[in-house]
Fold each of these.
Amino acid sequence: MFFMFDTLEGYIQPGTEEEALVKQIDFSKLPVHLAIIMDGNGRWARKRNLPRTEGHKAGTESVKEVIEASARLGLKYLTLYAFSRENWKRPKEEVNTLWNLLKEYLGRDSKILIDNNLKLKVIGEKKGIPYFVRRELNRVERLTRNNERMTVILALNYGGRQEIIETVKKLLKRKFSPEEINEEIFSRYLDTAGLPDPDLLIRTSGEMRLSNFLLWQCAYTELWITPTLWPDFRKKELFQAIIEYQKRERRFGGLDTQA
Ligand code: IPE
Ligand code: IPE
Ligand code: MG
């Protein structure tokens, strides 16, 4: 079943908790870029005496729901941390399952991205991604290249430190002089070139760390951490995170506007 994510109408049932939350959202102050560290799949499975891989499978439902809800809300960029540079340390079977699930998702659900005017972009070291997945990623990136409703950025084989090192290497190869280098130039050579920094970062499963995610880009990002495990994460919590974000005062090192 394919649907157009036009508005929230018909998506939120009247009289539900979700509806009450949506009413609290100020649509003129939405985060432009939401980033999510999708964590807790293994613990979700363990709680049910299932293999960790079942947690990853269940997590794909949350991915689909969050993409749809974000697009319907009107967010412009959604970055999902799906595989870190360090995740290769996991048992081979688990690593294979993760890449297989992504390949299946791209084969089965890329039509949802295409039909809903969503653009796919990958950040991370692409050449280290298994070829059977990379090929699909390239296909979907190509097909959605001109879409503009919302960009879904998948962080795959991604590491913030490695990204920074790669950027330094690019600048050296292009023979930039020390005087020419500044934040703006540096940002242009990151994987995230052209994307605004995340306004809000959600991490599920209660861990209070960045785990090498968007280290440069999250300098002034608002953090929201929930104990909910990723496979249990639903739109209701996305709405709660946004409401919470809208209550924050972002000072960027300056002074409180009321001061
Ligand atoms: C997040 O869940 C998925 C990836 C890191 C790919 P985890 O697999 O890290 O789950 P926990 O943290 O072990 O519960
Ligand atoms: C971060 O989660 C990576 C992704 C969600 C893809 P991890 O589960 O790998 O992080 P740590 O090991 O708990 O820091
Ligand atoms: Mg984890």
Amino acid sequence: MSAPRELLLDLQKVSAGYGALKVLHDVSLHVGKAEVVGLLGANGAGKSTLVRTISGHLRVRSGTIRHGGVDLTRLAPHRIPQHGVAVVLEARNLFGDMTVAENLGLALRNGRQRVPRFSIKDVLNLFPVLTEKYGTPAKLLSGGQQQMVAIARALLLQPDVLVLDEPSTGLAPKIIKDIVEVLQQLRSEGMSMLLIEQNVSMAAQLTDRAYVLSLGRIVYEVAEGTWKNTLESGALADAYLGGGMKSVEPRPPVKESRQ
Ligand code: ATP
């Protein structure tokens, strides 16, 4: 058996929600060093809510979020990357009027003060199309290019753990392929990642192990080395269908914040 991995991101019994709606119920999960972990779930399962609690945009009602032993639970969003966790939100949150260069430059200023693992040159090598778009305002880029800028910006924060909320959503197959290749490269270089996905085959391709979230609870875990058996057994489909298929209500603006 291989030695246990060093623990990086560690969520213990995290609960969160919006007003009277409790969405996450005692969610515990972890990501180890050089490990890629998936978080799967149907629409409305609470995946993005979990990401917003990790990024600091949504208050944790109970439980803890720790990284490398440091308690991040009550930190404001701008403090999270300084502790080594970079989050790519589904909305990407780029500054539309700023160029690609300016969006990336901001990350260099806001990231961790340490010897950088990624330079601008590195991220442009990962996403060559951004070189020709370097002086273009982000709002004029395609959705796929914006996703690339969002991932590149997160890498320039010099994270130990990269959290990606459904990076393939709404993108053309060719762009998804490019992004999958970059994530595979990062994985081979030992980047720790929490990959939120609805696409099971993409998660199986990219992750070492995975959790399934249904109605705000972890209902199933795919252990390391068991992806093939899990897919063949149909257990994942059962976990998905066992309560995960819930209609999604219209979303009013986020009310709770710890900014
Ligand atoms: P999807 O894959 O469709 O993005 P998800 O798994 O990311 O789904 P969430 O977006 O976290 O799910 O939503 C979980 C629940 O929280 C849903 O019932 C949703 O309606 C509710 N919800 C999400 N955002 C808000 C909000 N800003 N205010 C109120 N309720 C919300």
Amino acid sequence: MNSSPATRKRRISILGATGSIGRNTLDVMAHLGGREVFEVPAITGMGNIELLAAQARQTDAKFAVTADLARYHDLKSALAGSGIEVGAGPSALIEAGARDTDLLMAGIVGIAGLAPTLAAVANGANIALANKECLVSAGDLFHEAITKGGGELLPVDSEHNAIFQVLEENQRHAVDRIILTASGGPFRDYTREQMAAVTPETAAAHPNWSMGLKISIDSASMFNKALEMIEARHLFGMRPEQIEVIVHPQSIIHSMVGYTDGSVLAQLGAPDMRHAIGYAIAYPRRASLPVERLDFAKLAQLDFFAPDETRFPALGLARTAMQRGGLQGAVLNGAKEIALEAFIAGQIGFLEMADIVAATMDKLNDGRVALNIDDVYAADREARDVAQSVIANSARIAM
Ligand code: NAD
Ligand code: MG
């Protein structure tokens, strides 16, 4: 490769730069050489304009976008004199995704990440995929789009990144099972009675990983693992029964692949998202990353437990969604978002989240499949409406 100063910089766009994944991405990029090495065609955020503007200036981004249309002028004035192009709202977000780039970090949380990520996919960019909703809600369509676009899909979710690292391409036919590890979250040892009474604050306090609010609470309910089961099915082409979950409180083994000869390959590392992010950025090479090295003598012990599905019904719901297929992944995710928001708002208890998702999935179990992305959005909206009415009805009954 030509290493003269004329060599063009590596282009990385970042969707959701102000979030936990986005900030870690910028941290890794700074560590790997920052502006000397990377160019940032587009960077996006939403409410935290001050941080987004600082990130855009620091990386000398070409295009900065807030998802919130009403904050356009705030961002514009925060970037005055920088020469950085500014945009706002859903169409600017899609344009940010569509700008030419070598790699796109998909770090927006929720279904809002789907359209801008698909824009990058269509443009042939390699995708570092943190946003799990893209695959959970639109798995088959997303896959078709990747194949058509020609880019590479690099999973950033730590479990899927681990599997990606140990899945031997020429041995795919010999994969028996995929074993996703789960920390078990802050309520691993709680009784159902104790779980019924927990607050959003305690649910958000993850024992090992530092993450955004929603994913932290989803980890406590294991809805995060449920999404990851569906994500794994789409990423690695597994049948539902090939995807297992094991509780591993230390979060040192990030996941494993079992082969037909009985071998199990695992990827281990400190629980630090910069590992998976750095892997995706450096791929297909390995970079030198500022993550803690494992000291096995200090670790001394790794524990494993079968998950208790009566306390964590989300796992069973994921299996049901996979078996039913069609739009049930989108329904599970849309209903889960509403249930999660209701829990955060103090309207429902922690354990009720799974009841609401289950009821919504049953109501919308009509065998429909997504023919295009609008079908996915429609299923998402319908699931949210149904989940809202389930919550409203149960509140009436409780009165
Ligand atoms: P976060 O809440 O910290 O950040 C979310 C980002 O998305 C922010 O930049 C925010 O401004 C932006 N955003 C939020 N709502 C938006 C909307 N409606 N439109 C456009 N932008 C919006 O979340 P996070 O923890 O960084 O997670 C991001 C994604 O990565 C999620 O899908 C999550 O499941 C996944 N993920 C995160 C981690 C982690 O360690 N944080 C690990 C694995 C996977
Ligand atoms: Mg994960």
